[in-house]
Specification:
The chain is an all-beta fold. It has one domain: Ureidoglycolate hydrolase (Jelly Rolls), CATH 2.60.120. The chain contains one helix and 14 strands; from the N terminus they run βαβββββββββββββ. The strands form three sheets. Strands 11-6-14-1-9-8-12 form a seven-stranded mixed sheet, with no helix packed on it. A hairpin with a 2-residue loop joins strand 8 and strand 9. The longest helix has 4 residues. It is globular and about 55 Å long.
Length: 162
Amino acid sequence: MNTIRIEPLTAAAFRPYGDVIEKGLAQEITINRGKCVRHHALALADVTGEGARVAINIFAGQPYDLPHKLDLVERHPLGSQAFYPLGGHEWLAIVCEDDDGVPVSPRAFLASPDQGINLNRDQWHGVLTPLHAPCDFLVVDRAGPGDNLEEHLFDTPWTVQK
């Protein structure tokens, strides 16, 4: 089994795969008579296809233990996908590069309870992976007609560990 070492989630390290959603990474605009700060356009949804629209969902994720066996990744060719934790727990953002339609070189990022991600359209990624406890996630992705899910099972699983 191959091993992936978990690394911290930073905007610079994650840039090839999408955006980090975190306060302080975008323009801050004071609104509502000074009672609210808008952290503006931390990420932008990208959807394509006739009848496509942006959907806002809540996913209820069950926790994973470390070391984590990574045997499945997926991608969404018709839309970006954003995850933001609502439960105050660390979680893993796992991504892979693409080599002619095959996911390669997986990386695992440890996201804090205050960090989300917006995966680029057609980006290989692991499934929702909260750590320590169940966690709800606000998920923004594509809804509409068309096949927007491709899955890949690794012949040899990877072990994700600290």
